[in-house]
Amino acid sequence: MDDDSAILAFAALSQGTRLETFRLLVRHEPSGLPQGEIALQLGIPQNTMSTHLAILARAGLVMSQRQSRSVIYRADLAGLRTLLVYLLKDCCGRNADLCAPLIAELTCC
User: Fold this and answer.
1) pLDDT for the residue numbered 107
2) Which residues cross the membrane (predicted)?
3) What does the buried/exposed string (b/e) look like for 17-47 if buried means 16 or more CB atoms within 10 Å of the residue's CB?
4) pLDDT at residue 25, rounded to an integer
5) What is the average per-residue pLDDT within 41-66?
6) Taking the model in full, what pTM does it have?
């Protein structure tokens, strides 16, 4: 991942509805949710939700798949992993011992 891609991902997540959408989709892995259900659960108009999902998709954080007449959205966990690795790659000056508490906290998830 390069700086521009990371900035795009952070910009996508820096808006409240998009962050909430991403977290909702992570909770519904691996099955995902239809766009209408996401909008309903978050109380967001369908056309507004479509815009938010498009921004998250461009940032590499969500993916979609057509199933019959519905479009199912899922969190792109590979994209999330890439973003997290980008953040932690040079963690604490490459001193793994300093990052151990963070890694331990993530491991329990």
Assistant:
1) 73
2) none
3) ebeebbebbeebeeebbebebbbeeeebeee
4) 98
5) 97
6) 0.87
| CB burial of residue 76 (10 Å; 0-12, 13-18, 19+) | buried
Closest CA to 41 of 61, 60, 27: 27
Angle at which helix 3-13 crosses helix 77-88, to 10 degrees, equals 120
Tokens of 27: 């909770």
Q: Dihedral sign for Cα 33, 37, 43, 46, please.
A: positive
Concatenating the DSSP letter of every residue in 5-66 gives HHHHHHHHHTSHHHHHHHHHHHHTTTT-EEHHHHHHHHT--HHHHHHHHHHHHHTTSEEEEE
* 39-67: average pLDDT: 96
